[in-house]
Amino acid sequence: MSNKKASGKGSVFKPLMRYAGPHIWLLVVALILTVLSVAATLYAPILMGQGIDLIIDKGNVDFDGLVPILVKLAAVVAVTGISQWLMSLCTNKVTYNTVRDIRNDAFRNLQKLPLKYIDSHPHGDIMSRLITDVEQISDGLLMGFAQFFTGIVTIFGTLFFMLSISVKIALIVVVITPLSLFVARFIAKNTFKLFQKQSEARGEMTSLVEEMIGNQKVVKAFAYENESEEKFDVLNKNLQQVGVKATFFSSLTNPSTRFINGLVYTSVGIIGAFAAIGGGFSVGQLSCFLTYANQYTKPFNEISGVITELQSAFASAKRVFEIIDEPAEIPDSPDAVRLESVDGTLEAENVSFSYNPEIPLIENFNLSVKSGQRIAIVGPTGCGKTTVINLLMRFYDVTGGEIILSSVPIKQCTRDSMRSMYGMVLQETWLKTGTIRDNIAYGKPGASIEEITAAAKAAHCHGFIKRLPNGYDTVISEDGGTLSQGQKQLLCIARVMLALPPMLILDEATSSIDTRTEILIQQTFNEMMKGRTSFIIAHRLSTIKEADCILVMNSGHIIEQGTHEELMDKNGFYAELYNSQFSV
Q1: How far is residue 163's CA from residue 165's CA, in Å, rounded to a whole number?
Q2: Rg of the Cα trace of the chain?
Q3: pLDDT at 453
Q4: How buried is 537 (Cβ within 10 angstroms: 0-12 exposed, 13-18 middle, 19+ buried)?
Q5: Strand order in 422-425's β-sheet?
Q6: Contact 61, 108 (CB under 8 A)
Q7: What's the CA gap between 316 and 201, in Å, rounded?
Q8: By CB neighbour count within 10 A (0-12 exposed, 13-18 middle, 19+ buried), where does 327 fall?
Q9: Per-residue model confidence as pLDDT tens digits over 254-276
Q10: Is the dihedral of CA 540, 545, 550, 554 positive or negative?
Protein backbone atom coordinates (compact mmCIF):
# COMPACT_ATOMS: atom_id res chain seq x y z
CA MET A 1 0.00 0.00 0.00
CA SER A 2 2.80 2.38 0.80
CA ASN A 3 5.16 3.14 -2.00
CA LYS A 4 7.79 5.08 -0.19
CA LYS A 5 10.39 3.59 2.09
CA ALA A 6 9.87 4.54 5.70
CA SER A 7 12.86 6.35 7.08
CA GLY A 8 11.39 8.09 10.13
CA LYS A 9 8.29 8.89 12.13
CA GLY A 10 6.79 11.17 9.50
CA SER A 11 7.20 8.67 6.71
CA VAL A 12 5.44 5.85 8.61
CA PHE A 13 2.54 7.96 9.90
CA LYS A 14 0.91 8.44 6.50
CA PRO A 15 1.05 4.74 5.56
CA LEU A 16 -0.38 3.84 8.97
CA MET A 17 -3.28 6.23 8.48
CA ARG A 18 -3.76 4.90 4.95
CA TYR A 19 -4.25 1.42 6.37
CA ALA A 20 -6.71 2.82 8.92
CA GLY A 21 -8.58 4.71 6.15
CA PRO A 22 -10.99 1.88 5.14
CA HIS A 23 -12.24 1.81 8.74
CA ILE A 24 -12.74 5.59 9.01
CA TRP A 25 -16.45 5.21 9.72
CA LEU A 26 -15.63 3.33 12.92
CA LEU A 27 -13.31 6.16 13.92
CA VAL A 28 -16.14 8.65 13.31
CA VAL A 29 -18.48 6.58 15.49
CA ALA A 30 -15.75 6.37 18.16
CA LEU A 31 -15.32 10.15 18.02
CA ILE A 32 -19.07 10.72 18.47
CA LEU A 33 -19.12 8.31 21.41
CA THR A 34 -16.06 10.08 22.83
CA VAL A 35 -17.84 13.44 22.69
CA LEU A 36 -20.89 11.90 24.40
CA SER A 37 -18.72 10.25 27.07
CA VAL A 38 -16.69 13.39 27.77
CA ALA A 39 -19.81 15.59 27.83
CA ALA A 40 -21.40 13.29 30.40
CA THR A 41 -18.17 13.17 32.41
CA LEU A 42 -17.87 16.96 32.43
CA TYR A 43 -21.49 17.44 33.36
CA ALA A 44 -20.95 15.38 36.53
CA PRO A 45 -18.82 18.04 38.35
CA ILE A 46 -21.58 20.62 37.76
CA LEU A 47 -24.09 18.30 39.41
CA MET A 48 -21.71 17.60 42.29
CA GLY A 49 -21.06 21.33 42.71
CA GLN A 50 -24.80 21.99 42.87
CA GLY A 51 -25.12 19.21 45.42
CA ILE A 52 -22.36 20.68 47.59
CA ASP A 53 -24.05 24.07 47.58
CA LEU A 54 -27.22 22.39 48.94
CA ILE A 55 -25.25 21.41 52.05
CA ILE A 56 -25.95 24.74 53.76
CA ASP A 57 -24.65 24.01 57.22
CA LYS A 58 -24.17 21.24 59.75
CA GLY A 59 -27.51 19.49 60.00
CA ASN A 60 -28.97 21.78 57.37
CA VAL A 61 -29.13 19.88 54.05
CA ASP A 62 -31.70 20.34 51.29
CA PHE A 63 -32.45 16.64 50.69
CA ASP A 64 -35.41 17.43 48.44
CA GLY A 65 -33.09 19.30 46.10
CA LEU A 66 -30.42 16.53 46.26
CA VAL A 67 -32.68 13.69 45.03
CA PRO A 68 -33.11 14.92 41.41
CA ILE A 69 -29.40 15.75 41.31
CA LEU A 70 -28.50 12.21 42.38
CA VAL A 71 -30.86 10.76 39.75
CA LYS A 72 -29.21 12.89 37.07
CA LEU A 73 -25.79 11.85 38.37
CA ALA A 74 -26.72 8.16 38.10
CA ALA A 75 -27.91 8.71 34.51
CA VAL A 76 -24.66 10.53 33.66
CA VAL A 77 -22.59 7.64 35.08
CA ALA A 78 -24.62 5.12 33.03
CA VAL A 79 -24.24 7.13 29.81
CA THR A 80 -20.51 7.52 30.44
CA GLY A 81 -19.98 3.80 31.03
CA ILE A 82 -21.98 2.63 27.99
CA SER A 83 -20.43 5.16 25.61
CA GLN A 84 -16.89 4.32 26.78
CA TRP A 85 -17.58 0.60 26.31
CA LEU A 86 -18.89 1.13 22.76
CA MET A 87 -16.00 3.46 21.99
CA SER A 88 -13.52 0.78 23.08
CA LEU A 89 -15.22 -1.73 20.78
CA CYS A 90 -14.85 0.66 17.83
CA THR A 91 -11.22 1.56 18.50
CA ASN A 92 -10.30 -2.10 19.08
CA LYS A 93 -11.90 -3.09 15.78
CA VAL A 94 -10.11 -0.29 13.90
CA THR A 95 -6.76 -1.23 15.48
CA TYR A 96 -6.93 -4.97 14.88
CA ASN A 97 -8.33 -4.60 11.36
CA THR A 98 -5.55 -2.13 10.53
CA VAL A 99 -2.88 -4.41 11.97
CA ARG A 100 -4.40 -7.41 10.15
CA ASP A 101 -4.15 -5.55 6.82
CA ILE A 102 -0.54 -4.51 7.53
CA ARG A 103 0.44 -8.08 8.42
CA ASN A 104 -1.36 -9.45 5.34
CA ASP A 105 0.40 -6.99 3.04
CA ALA A 106 3.77 -7.68 4.63
CA PHE A 107 3.35 -11.46 4.29
CA ARG A 108 1.91 -11.12 0.78
CA ASN A 109 4.86 -9.02 -0.36
CA LEU A 110 7.24 -11.45 1.32
CA GLN A 111 5.91 -14.14 -1.04
CA LYS A 112 6.66 -11.87 -3.99
CA LEU A 113 10.18 -10.90 -2.95
CA PRO A 114 13.06 -12.37 -4.94
CA LEU A 115 14.98 -15.19 -3.28
CA LYS A 116 18.04 -12.97 -2.96
CA TYR A 117 16.18 -10.95 -0.29
CA ILE A 118 15.34 -14.08 1.73
CA ASP A 119 18.88 -15.41 1.27
CA SER A 120 20.48 -12.14 2.41
CA HIS A 121 18.36 -11.48 5.53
CA PRO A 122 18.29 -13.53 8.75
CA HIS A 123 15.07 -15.53 8.83
CA GLY A 124 14.55 -14.83 12.52
CA ASP A 125 14.69 -11.08 11.89
CA ILE A 126 12.02 -11.37 9.18
CA MET A 127 9.86 -13.40 11.59
CA SER A 128 10.36 -10.74 14.27
CA ARG A 129 9.14 -8.03 11.91
CA LEU A 130 6.00 -9.94 10.96
CA ILE A 131 5.09 -10.97 14.51
CA THR A 132 6.68 -8.91 17.29
CA ASP A 133 6.94 -5.59 15.45
CA VAL A 134 3.36 -5.81 14.19
CA GLU A 135 2.22 -6.43 17.78
CA GLN A 136 4.09 -3.28 18.84
CA ILE A 137 2.18 -1.35 16.17
CA SER A 138 -1.06 -2.80 17.54
CA ASP A 139 -0.26 -1.67 21.08
CA GLY A 140 0.65 1.84 19.92
CA LEU A 141 -2.44 2.29 17.75
CA LEU A 142 -4.75 0.90 20.42
CA MET A 143 -3.51 3.40 22.97
CA GLY A 144 -3.43 6.17 20.37
CA PHE A 145 -7.01 5.72 19.17
CA ALA A 146 -8.42 5.05 22.65
CA GLN A 147 -6.76 7.90 24.53
CA PHE A 148 -5.98 10.50 21.91
CA PHE A 149 -9.63 11.15 20.98
CA THR A 150 -10.71 11.24 24.61
CA GLY A 151 -7.84 13.52 25.56
CA ILE A 152 -8.46 16.10 22.83
CA VAL A 153 -12.22 16.25 23.43
CA THR A 154 -11.69 16.46 27.21
CA ILE A 155 -9.24 19.36 26.84
CA PHE A 156 -11.64 21.43 24.74
CA GLY A 157 -14.67 20.43 26.82
CA THR A 158 -13.12 21.30 30.20
CA LEU A 159 -11.73 24.53 28.75
CA PHE A 160 -15.24 25.56 27.70
CA PHE A 161 -16.70 24.81 31.14
CA MET A 162 -13.83 26.54 32.98
CA LEU A 163 -14.23 29.67 30.87
CA SER A 164 -17.93 29.68 31.69
CA ILE A 165 -17.10 29.71 35.42
CA SER A 166 -14.06 32.05 35.56
CA VAL A 167 -12.15 33.44 32.60
CA LYS A 168 -9.18 34.65 34.66
CA ILE A 169 -8.48 31.36 36.43
CA ALA A 170 -9.11 29.41 33.22
CA LEU A 171 -6.44 31.47 31.43
CA ILE A 172 -3.92 30.62 34.15
CA VAL A 173 -4.59 26.93 33.56
CA VAL A 174 -4.32 27.34 29.78
CA VAL A 175 -0.98 29.19 29.99
CA ILE A 176 0.78 26.73 32.33
CA THR A 177 -0.53 23.34 31.15
CA PRO A 178 0.94 23.24 27.59
CA LEU A 179 4.42 23.22 29.15
CA SER A 180 3.85 19.52 29.80
CA LEU A 181 3.42 18.90 26.07
CA PHE A 182 6.70 20.62 25.28
CA VAL A 183 8.44 18.46 27.88
CA ALA A 184 6.81 15.32 26.48
CA ARG A 185 7.73 16.26 22.91
CA PHE A 186 11.37 16.87 23.89
CA ILE A 187 11.62 13.48 25.60
CA ALA A 188 9.78 11.63 22.81
CA LYS A 189 12.05 13.10 20.17
CA ASN A 190 15.05 11.56 21.90
CA THR A 191 13.47 8.15 22.54
CA PHE A 192 12.51 7.28 18.94
CA LYS A 193 16.05 6.19 18.00
CA LEU A 194 16.32 4.15 21.19
CA PHE A 195 13.08 2.30 20.43
CA GLN A 196 14.34 1.72 16.90
CA LYS A 197 17.55 0.16 18.25
CA GLN A 198 15.43 -1.92 20.64
CA SER A 199 13.41 -3.34 17.70
CA GLU A 200 16.61 -4.16 15.81
CA ALA A 201 18.14 -5.84 18.87
CA ARG A 202 14.94 -7.86 19.34
CA GLY A 203 15.15 -8.96 15.70
CA GLU A 204 18.77 -10.10 16.13
CA MET A 205 17.84 -12.12 19.20
CA THR A 206 14.87 -13.75 17.44
CA SER A 207 17.16 -14.64 14.55
CA LEU A 208 19.69 -16.31 16.85
CA VAL A 209 17.00 -18.24 18.75
CA GLU A 210 15.42 -19.45 15.50
CA GLU A 211 18.85 -20.49 14.22
CA MET A 212 19.81 -22.37 17.40
CA ILE A 213 16.45 -24.16 17.74
CA GLY A 214 16.34 -25.12 14.06
CA ASN A 215 19.85 -26.57 14.22
CA GLN A 216 19.83 -27.97 17.74
CA LYS A 217 21.23 -31.33 16.67
CA VAL A 218 24.26 -29.67 15.08
CA VAL A 219 24.70 -27.48 18.17
CA LYS A 220 24.77 -30.52 20.42
CA ALA A 221 26.87 -32.61 18.04
CA PHE A 222 29.65 -30.00 18.09
CA ALA A 223 29.18 -29.17 21.79
CA TYR A 224 28.37 -25.59 20.83
CA GLU A 225 26.01 -25.01 23.76
CA ASN A 226 28.37 -22.74 25.70
CA GLU A 227 29.22 -20.63 22.65
CA SER A 228 25.55 -20.26 21.73
CA GLU A 229 24.77 -19.23 25.31
CA GLU A 230 27.56 -16.65 25.16
CA LYS A 231 26.20 -15.27 21.89
CA PHE A 232 22.72 -15.15 23.38
CA ASP A 233 24.04 -13.42 26.50
CA VAL A 234 25.71 -10.72 24.36
CA LEU A 235 22.52 -10.07 22.37
CA ASN A 236 20.38 -10.30 25.50
CA LYS A 237 22.60 -7.83 27.32
CA ASN A 238 22.48 -5.47 24.35
CA LEU A 239 18.67 -5.71 24.25
CA GLN A 240 18.54 -5.16 28.01
CA GLN A 241 20.77 -2.06 27.82
CA VAL A 242 18.92 -0.52 24.90
CA GLY A 243 15.56 -1.43 26.45
CA VAL A 244 16.50 0.12 29.80
CA LYS A 245 17.62 3.35 28.11
CA ALA A 246 14.48 3.55 26.00
CA THR A 247 12.25 2.80 28.99
CA PHE A 248 14.14 5.20 31.27
CA PHE A 249 13.92 8.17 28.93
CA SER A 250 10.31 7.44 28.01
CA SER A 251 9.39 7.02 31.69
CA LEU A 252 10.56 10.58 32.36
CA THR A 253 7.54 11.81 30.45
CA ASN A 254 4.87 10.96 33.01
CA PRO A 255 6.48 12.37 36.17
CA SER A 256 7.59 15.51 34.29
CA THR A 257 4.10 16.24 33.01
CA ARG A 258 2.55 15.32 36.37
CA PHE A 259 4.83 17.84 38.09
CA ILE A 260 3.65 20.62 35.79
CA ASN A 261 0.03 19.51 36.18
CA GLY A 262 0.50 19.58 39.95
CA LEU A 263 1.57 23.21 39.68
CA VAL A 264 -1.60 23.95 37.72
CA TYR A 265 -3.84 22.27 40.30
CA THR A 266 -2.09 24.05 43.18
CA SER A 267 -2.36 27.44 41.44
CA VAL A 268 -6.07 26.96 40.80
CA GLY A 269 -6.64 25.86 44.41
CA ILE A 270 -4.88 28.87 45.91
CA ILE A 271 -6.37 31.49 43.58
CA GLY A 272 -9.83 29.89 43.76
CA ALA A 273 -9.71 29.78 47.57
CA PHE A 274 -8.98 33.51 47.76
CA ALA A 275 -11.80 34.14 45.26
CA ALA A 276 -14.19 32.08 47.39
CA ILE A 277 -13.16 33.96 50.55
CA GLY A 278 -13.79 37.23 48.72
CA GLY A 279 -17.27 36.07 47.73
CA GLY A 280 -16.54 35.73 44.01
CA PHE A 281 -16.93 31.93 44.17
CA SER A 282 -19.17 29.52 45.99
CA VAL A 283 -17.61 26.45 47.57
CA GLY A 284 -19.45 24.28 45.05
CA GLN A 285 -18.06 26.29 42.14
CA LEU A 286 -14.52 26.00 43.54
CA SER A 287 -14.94 22.23 43.90
CA CYS A 288 -16.29 22.07 40.34
CA PHE A 289 -13.41 24.19 39.00
CA LEU A 290 -10.78 22.08 40.76
CA THR A 291 -12.33 18.97 39.22
CA TYR A 292 -12.20 20.57 35.77
CA ALA A 293 -8.59 21.69 36.29
CA ASN A 294 -7.66 18.11 37.17
CA GLN A 295 -9.58 16.74 34.18
CA TYR A 296 -8.01 19.35 31.92
CA THR A 297 -4.46 18.40 32.90
CA LYS A 298 -5.07 14.64 32.91
CA PRO A 299 -5.31 14.32 29.08
CA PHE A 300 -1.91 16.00 28.75
CA ASN A 301 -0.49 13.17 30.85
CA GLU A 302 -2.32 10.58 28.77
CA ILE A 303 -1.30 12.16 25.47
CA SER A 304 2.32 12.26 26.60
CA GLY A 305 2.03 8.55 27.42
CA VAL A 306 0.51 7.95 23.99
CA ILE A 307 3.40 9.81 22.36
CA THR A 308 5.87 7.59 24.23
CA GLU A 309 4.04 4.41 23.18
CA LEU A 310 3.85 5.65 19.59
CA GLN A 311 7.64 5.98 19.45
CA SER A 312 7.90 2.22 19.84
CA ALA A 313 5.04 1.69 17.37
CA PHE A 314 6.65 3.98 14.76
CA ALA A 315 10.03 2.29 15.18
CA SER A 316 8.39 -1.11 14.64
CA ALA A 317 6.27 0.19 11.75
CA LYS A 318 9.42 1.37 10.01
CA ARG A 319 10.79 -2.19 10.05
CA VAL A 320 7.50 -3.70 8.84
CA PHE A 321 7.09 -1.15 6.04
CA GLU A 322 10.62 -1.96 4.88
CA ILE A 323 9.28 -5.40 3.94
CA ILE A 324 6.10 -3.97 2.39
CA ASP A 325 8.11 -1.38 0.41
CA GLU A 326 10.83 -3.80 -0.67
CA PRO A 327 10.70 -4.10 -4.50
CA ALA A 328 8.96 -7.32 -5.43
CA GLU A 329 10.30 -9.82 -7.91
CA ILE A 330 10.04 -8.48 -11.46
CA PRO A 331 6.49 -9.48 -12.43
CA ASP A 332 5.66 -11.56 -15.47
CA SER A 333 5.20 -9.40 -18.55
CA PRO A 334 1.56 -8.84 -19.60
CA ASP A 335 2.12 -10.89 -22.76
CA ALA A 336 3.99 -13.70 -20.95
CA VAL A 337 3.33 -17.16 -22.35
CA ARG A 338 1.61 -19.67 -20.09
CA LEU A 339 3.21 -23.05 -20.73
CA GLU A 340 0.74 -25.90 -20.88
CA SER A 341 3.31 -28.49 -21.94
CA VAL A 342 6.96 -28.66 -22.99
CA ASP A 343 8.92 -30.94 -25.26
CA GLY A 344 11.89 -31.03 -22.87
CA THR A 345 14.38 -29.17 -25.05
CA LEU A 346 16.47 -26.48 -23.39
CA GLU A 347 19.09 -24.02 -24.62
CA ALA A 348 21.41 -21.80 -22.59
CA GLU A 349 23.09 -19.17 -24.77
CA ASN A 350 26.06 -17.17 -23.41
CA VAL A 351 24.56 -17.10 -19.91
CA SER A 352 26.29 -14.99 -17.27
CA PHE A 353 25.37 -14.58 -13.63
CA SER A 354 26.86 -13.64 -10.27
CA TYR A 355 25.37 -13.14 -6.82
CA ASN A 356 27.82 -10.29 -6.24
CA PRO A 357 28.54 -8.06 -9.25
CA GLU A 358 32.15 -7.75 -8.11
CA ILE A 359 32.68 -11.53 -7.96
CA PRO A 360 31.93 -13.24 -11.31
CA LEU A 361 30.54 -16.77 -11.14
CA ILE A 362 28.79 -18.07 -14.28
CA GLU A 363 30.33 -16.69 -17.48
CA ASN A 364 29.54 -17.50 -21.13
CA PHE A 365 27.62 -20.63 -20.14
CA ASN A 366 26.29 -22.53 -23.17
CA LEU A 367 24.20 -25.67 -23.13
CA SER A 368 21.99 -27.55 -25.57
CA VAL A 369 19.67 -30.23 -24.16
CA LYS A 370 17.53 -32.51 -26.30
CA SER A 371 14.17 -33.89 -25.26
CA GLY A 372 14.40 -36.78 -22.79
CA GLN A 373 18.13 -36.40 -22.14
CA ARG A 374 19.64 -37.01 -18.74
CA ILE A 375 22.09 -34.23 -18.00
CA ALA A 376 24.43 -34.71 -15.06
CA ILE A 377 26.25 -31.71 -13.61
CA VAL A 378 29.41 -32.41 -11.62
CA GLY A 379 32.31 -30.43 -10.29
CA PRO A 380 33.99 -29.26 -7.09
CA THR A 381 32.09 -27.42 -4.37
CA GLY A 382 31.32 -23.82 -5.33
CA CYS A 383 31.75 -24.35 -9.05
CA GLY A 384 28.17 -23.23 -9.80
CA LYS A 385 26.17 -26.47 -10.04
CA THR A 386 23.29 -25.38 -7.79
CA THR A 387 23.43 -21.89 -9.29
CA VAL A 388 22.69 -23.39 -12.70
CA ILE A 389 19.59 -25.04 -11.22
CA ASN A 390 18.55 -21.69 -9.67
CA LEU A 391 18.82 -20.11 -13.11
CA LEU A 392 16.91 -22.91 -14.85
CA MET A 393 14.06 -22.50 -12.33
CA ARG A 394 14.36 -18.71 -12.56
CA PHE A 395 14.81 -18.36 -8.84
CA TYR A 396 17.42 -15.85 -9.98
CA ASP A 397 17.40 -14.06 -13.33
CA VAL A 398 20.46 -14.27 -15.54
CA THR A 399 22.48 -11.06 -15.86
CA GLY A 400 23.50 -11.88 -19.40
CA GLY A 401 22.48 -14.26 -22.19
CA GLU A 402 19.27 -16.24 -22.34
CA ILE A 403 17.76 -19.58 -21.32
CA ILE A 404 15.23 -21.03 -23.75
CA LEU A 405 12.76 -23.77 -22.78
CA SER A 406 10.88 -25.53 -25.61
CA SER A 407 11.76 -22.68 -28.00
CA VAL A 408 10.40 -20.03 -25.56
CA PRO A 409 12.79 -17.79 -23.57
CA ILE A 410 11.96 -18.40 -19.90
CA LYS A 411 11.75 -14.63 -19.29
CA GLN A 412 8.79 -14.65 -21.67
CA CYS A 413 7.00 -17.42 -19.74
CA THR A 414 4.93 -17.03 -16.59
CA ARG A 415 7.00 -18.22 -13.65
CA ASP A 416 4.40 -20.52 -12.16
CA SER A 417 3.68 -22.33 -15.44
CA MET A 418 7.40 -22.69 -16.19
CA ARG A 419 8.22 -24.00 -12.72
CA SER A 420 5.29 -26.42 -12.84
CA MET A 421 7.09 -28.18 -15.69
CA TYR A 422 9.84 -29.23 -13.26
CA GLY A 423 9.86 -31.65 -10.37
CA MET A 424 12.59 -31.00 -7.82
CA VAL A 425 14.15 -33.26 -5.21
CA LEU A 426 16.80 -31.38 -3.28
CA GLN A 427 19.45 -32.41 -0.82
CA GLU A 428 17.75 -30.20 1.76
CA THR A 429 14.38 -31.71 2.62
CA TRP A 430 11.36 -29.52 3.17
CA LEU A 431 8.18 -30.65 4.89
CA LYS A 432 5.26 -28.66 6.21
CA THR A 433 3.25 -29.07 9.39
CA GLY A 434 0.43 -31.40 8.41
CA THR A 435 -0.29 -35.05 7.65
CA ILE A 436 1.95 -37.37 5.64
CA ARG A 437 -0.80 -37.37 3.01
CA ASP A 438 -0.73 -33.54 2.78
CA ASN A 439 3.05 -33.49 2.43
CA ILE A 440 3.13 -35.99 -0.42
CA ALA A 441 0.21 -34.26 -2.19
CA TYR A 442 1.80 -30.81 -1.85
CA GLY A 443 2.33 -30.50 -5.60
CA LYS A 444 -1.01 -32.16 -6.47
CA PRO A 445 -3.54 -31.19 -3.78
CA GLY A 446 -6.46 -33.03 -5.38
CA ALA A 447 -4.70 -36.40 -5.53
CA SER A 448 -6.64 -39.43 -4.31
CA ILE A 449 -5.33 -41.66 -1.54
CA GLU A 450 -4.75 -44.38 -4.14
CA GLU A 451 -2.46 -42.07 -6.16
CA ILE A 452 -0.65 -40.98 -3.00
CA THR A 453 -0.15 -44.58 -1.92
CA ALA A 454 1.16 -45.57 -5.36
CA ALA A 455 3.67 -42.69 -5.28
CA ALA A 456 4.77 -43.68 -1.76
CA LYS A 457 5.28 -47.28 -2.85
CA ALA A 458 7.31 -46.14 -5.85
CA ALA A 459 9.45 -44.05 -3.50
CA HIS A 460 9.80 -47.03 -1.12
CA CYS A 461 8.36 -45.13 1.84
CA HIS A 462 4.97 -46.88 2.05
CA GLY A 463 6.36 -49.39 4.57
CA PHE A 464 7.52 -46.94 7.22
CA ILE A 465 4.41 -44.76 6.68
CA LYS A 466 2.13 -47.69 7.51
CA ARG A 467 4.12 -48.24 10.70
CA LEU A 468 3.38 -44.70 11.90
CA PRO A 469 0.59 -44.31 14.50
CA ASN A 470 -2.01 -43.05 12.02
CA GLY A 471 -0.40 -44.07 8.76
CA TYR A 472 -0.91 -41.48 6.03
CA ASP A 473 -2.95 -39.34 8.46
CA THR A 474 -0.06 -39.01 10.92
CA VAL A 475 0.62 -35.35 11.63
CA ILE A 476 4.26 -34.25 11.47
CA SER A 477 5.92 -30.92 12.16
CA GLU A 478 7.92 -28.88 9.68
CA ASP A 479 11.18 -30.54 10.76
CA GLY A 480 9.69 -34.01 10.33
CA GLY A 481 9.53 -34.75 14.07
CA THR A 482 10.86 -38.25 14.75
CA LEU A 483 11.37 -39.11 11.07
CA SER A 484 14.95 -39.77 10.03
CA GLN A 485 16.64 -37.60 7.41
CA GLY A 486 16.39 -40.47 4.95
CA GLN A 487 12.65 -40.93 5.60
CA LYS A 488 12.06 -37.21 5.08
CA GLN A 489 13.93 -37.36 1.79
CA LEU A 490 11.85 -40.35 0.68
CA LEU A 491 8.68 -38.30 1.31
CA CYS A 492 10.10 -35.53 -0.89
CA ILE A 493 10.82 -38.09 -3.62
CA ALA A 494 7.25 -39.41 -3.31
CA ARG A 495 5.97 -35.86 -3.72
CA VAL A 496 7.69 -35.57 -7.11
CA MET A 497 6.66 -39.06 -8.17
CA LEU A 498 3.03 -38.14 -7.54
CA ALA A 499 3.18 -34.96 -9.63
CA LEU A 500 5.25 -36.58 -12.45
CA PRO A 501 6.17 -33.36 -14.29
CA PRO A 502 7.75 -33.49 -17.76
CA MET A 503 11.18 -32.37 -16.48
CA LEU A 504 13.15 -33.35 -13.38
CA ILE A 505 15.85 -31.79 -11.23
CA LEU A 506 17.59 -34.12 -8.79
CA ASP A 507 20.08 -32.33 -6.56
CA GLU A 508 21.78 -35.00 -4.44
CA ALA A 509 18.33 -36.57 -4.23
CA THR A 510 19.52 -39.73 -2.48
CA SER A 511 22.25 -38.27 -0.29
CA SER A 512 20.55 -39.26 2.99
CA ILE A 513 19.30 -42.70 1.93
CA ASP A 514 20.93 -46.04 2.74
CA THR A 515 22.71 -47.90 -0.06
CA ARG A 516 20.10 -50.66 -0.45
CA THR A 517 17.18 -48.21 -0.66
CA GLU A 518 19.24 -45.96 -2.93
CA ILE A 519 19.60 -48.80 -5.45
CA LEU A 520 15.83 -49.31 -5.44
CA ILE A 521 15.23 -45.55 -5.73
CA GLN A 522 17.69 -45.31 -8.61
CA GLN A 523 15.74 -48.02 -10.43
CA THR A 524 12.52 -46.03 -9.84
CA PHE A 525 14.23 -42.85 -11.00
CA ASN A 526 15.39 -44.60 -14.17
CA GLU A 527 11.79 -45.55 -14.93
CA MET A 528 10.54 -42.07 -14.06
CA MET A 529 13.20 -40.35 -16.18
CA LYS A 530 12.29 -42.24 -19.32
CA GLY A 531 11.04 -39.68 -21.81
CA ARG A 532 11.68 -36.82 -19.36
CA THR A 533 14.50 -34.32 -19.57
CA SER A 534 16.39 -34.61 -16.31
CA PHE A 535 19.14 -32.61 -14.61
CA ILE A 536 21.10 -34.52 -12.01
CA ILE A 537 23.59 -33.09 -9.54
CA ALA A 538 25.62 -35.71 -7.72
CA HIS A 539 28.86 -35.84 -5.79
CA ARG A 540 28.95 -39.65 -5.98
CA LEU A 541 29.88 -39.90 -9.63
CA SER A 542 29.08 -43.61 -9.73
CA THR A 543 25.36 -42.67 -9.63
CA ILE A 544 25.45 -40.70 -12.91
CA LYS A 545 27.36 -43.09 -15.15
CA GLU A 546 24.19 -43.74 -17.19
CA ALA A 547 23.64 -40.03 -17.98
CA ASP A 548 23.34 -39.09 -21.65
CA CYS A 549 25.59 -36.10 -21.09
CA ILE A 550 27.81 -35.12 -18.19
CA LEU A 551 28.71 -31.44 -17.74
CA VAL A 552 31.92 -30.93 -15.82
CA MET A 553 31.99 -27.48 -14.24
CA ASN A 554 34.75 -25.51 -12.60
CA SER A 555 34.67 -21.83 -11.61
CA GLY A 556 31.37 -21.23 -13.40
CA HIS A 557 32.46 -22.69 -16.74
CA ILE A 558 31.78 -26.00 -18.50
CA ILE A 559 35.28 -27.35 -18.94
CA GLU A 560 34.36 -30.84 -20.17
CA GLN A 561 31.27 -32.40 -21.69
CA GLY A 562 30.34 -35.90 -22.84
CA THR A 563 29.29 -39.37 -21.69
CA HIS A 564 31.02 -41.17 -18.85
CA GLU A 565 33.08 -43.30 -21.24
CA GLU A 566 34.08 -40.33 -23.40
CA LEU A 567 35.19 -38.29 -20.41
CA MET A 568 37.14 -41.19 -18.92
CA ASP A 569 38.91 -41.69 -22.25
CA LYS A 570 39.95 -38.02 -22.21
CA ASN A 571 41.68 -38.66 -18.87
CA GLY A 572 41.04 -35.06 -17.89
CA PHE A 573 39.40 -33.27 -14.96
CA TYR A 574 36.38 -35.62 -14.80
CA ALA A 575 38.59 -38.72 -14.84
CA GLU A 576 40.57 -37.22 -11.98
CA LEU A 577 37.37 -36.52 -10.01
CA TYR A 578 36.00 -40.00 -10.69
CA ASN A 579 39.20 -41.82 -9.74
CA SER A 580 39.58 -39.74 -6.59
CA GLN A 581 36.53 -41.58 -5.19
CA PHE A 582 38.52 -44.78 -5.03
CA SER A 583 41.84 -43.38 -3.86
CA VAL A 584 42.89 -44.04 -0.29
Answers
A1: 5
A2: 35
A3: 92
A4: buried
A5: 422-425, 503-507, 533-537, 374-378, 549-554, 557-562
A6: no
A7: 12
A8: exposed
A9: 677 777 777 777 777 777 777 76
A10: positive
